[in-house]
Amino acid sequence: MTRRFASITLAAIATVIAGILFVVIPSQAIKAIHVPLTTSPTDVGLAYENFTLTPTDADLTLKGWWMAADDPVATMVFIHGGGSNRHSTYFESLAFYRAMVDVGVSVAAIDLRNHGMSGDDGNGLQFGRTEMHDALATIDWARTKAGDGPLFLMGISMGGATSIHAAHAGAKVDGVILLDPLLDTRDTFMRGGVAQTGLPAALFAPAAWSAMQFFGLPSGADEALAKAKTLDVPILLIQDPDDPVTRRPFAEDLARHNPQVTLWLPPPIDPQHPDLAWKGYWGSHVSAFIFYPEQTTTQITQFMEAAQSPL
Questions:
Q1: Can you list the positions of beta strands (E) in 82-126?
Q2: What is the pLDDT of residues 206-221, one digit of tens each?
Q3: Which of 204, 182, 183 is nearest to 193 (CA)?
Q4: Is 21 in the same domain as 41?
Q5: Separation CA 32–CA 120 (nearest Å)
Q6: For the whole model, what pTM was predicted?
Q7: Start-to-end C-alpha separation, the chain
Q8: Whether residue 6 sits in one domain with residue 111
């Protein structure tokens, strides 16, 4: 009786552990948490318009800001990362919008579905698979403002994956700018688990597998990296060399396989730098503009100029 009870207990414990690894962790990792907007472009001296739009794949409303340059040379659609909103404190996006407008680039920035002030679709984070429809809708909207002028798509972290999926789906843009993009689903899921908890990456491997098999996250040929290798559009890839979440080897793999990619590695950031302390295990993820605003802005403007120049 005791031996049988022990076997039943072990089986119950194994079931609970399996449930945590294969169900609880992936479902919580993709859960939509709306981070409220607490500021606006006026805080950096930018005039702006609020706008709303609806993607073609879902009956939900997306909220955005339009920040027009006085004499625009280009337009940018900006896509934030997962778990954030159009004002990404991790990226200091308001300061970035200010920098773009100052160099003549008008900016349309939205809250992706399941983020900020935008509506929910019930699927949570999908690493660009569904969010691409939000980017496509914003590009179409921004085109009504940009006219025939050059239009670029920029995404950070999961916004990078979203931009890749949108470009692969036929987004009409003159170039794509990726900053510390989410390229490999499994690795980013695991490293995100480390960033959130401080636990070893290997503990999140079963959850990463389950998230791809049962929770909709892209895998195989549907992953951002695989799709990015096939894109025939100019791409600027800004990769923090020591980013602990969306890591350098995948960026370098993309640059090796797609001749359209211009890869820029900003100078390394000291992991002990006091300005990184508040980011915890996220480290230098999406920090290039925070630490090197002039260099990052220059890379983007030079890329835009080159993308518009005839060969």
A1: 105-110
A2: 999 999 999 999 999 9
A3: 204
A4: no
A5: 8
A6: 0.95
A7: 81
A8: no
H/E element holding 74?
Answer: strand 74-79
Task: Count the neighbouring beta carbons within 10 Å of the beta carbon of residue 271.
Answer: 10
Do residues 204 and 193 make contact, with C-beta atoms less than 8 angstroms apart?
yes
CATH number of the domain that residue 149 is part of: 3.40.50.1820
User: Do 195 and 168 fall into the same domain?
Assistant: no
Here the tokens at position 1 are: 């009786």
Find the mean pLDDT for residues 84-100: 96
C-alpha to C-alpha distance for 269 and 128, rounded to whole angstroms? 28
Bridge partners, 179 (sequence order): 156, 238
Whose tokens are 């005039």? That residue is 47
- Do 74 and 200 lie in one domain? The reply is no
Q: CA–CA separation, 131 vs 139, rounded Å?
A: 13
Tokens of 262: 């211009």
Per-residue model confidence as pLDDT tens digits over 27-72: 888 988 888 899 999 999 999 999 999 999 999 999 999 999 999 9
Instruction: Say whether both 14 and 142 belong to one domain.
Output: no
Q: Which residue has the tokens 């802005």?
A: 297
Are residues 53 and 155 located together in one domain of the fold?
Answer: yes
| pLDDT at position 29 | 86
Could you tell me the two tokens for 106?
Answer: 């008008």
Task: Tell me the mean pLDDT in the region 17-26.
Answer: 69
So what's the pLDDT on residue 14?
47
Residues 107 and 248 in one domain: yes
The alpha helices in 125-229, defined as continuous H runs, are 132-146, 158-168, 185-197, 205-214, 224-228
Do 19 and 49 lie in one domain? The reply is no
By three-state DSSP, how is residue 286 classified? coil
Residue 86 tokens read as: 């159009």
- What mean pLDDT value characterizes the chain? 93
5 is in which domain, residue-wise? 1-30+185-216
In the chain, the number of structural domains is 2
pLDDT in tens, 189-245: 999 999 999 999 999 999 999 999 999 999 999 999 999 999 999 999 999 999 999
Choosing from 167, 199, 216, the residue where a domain stops is 216
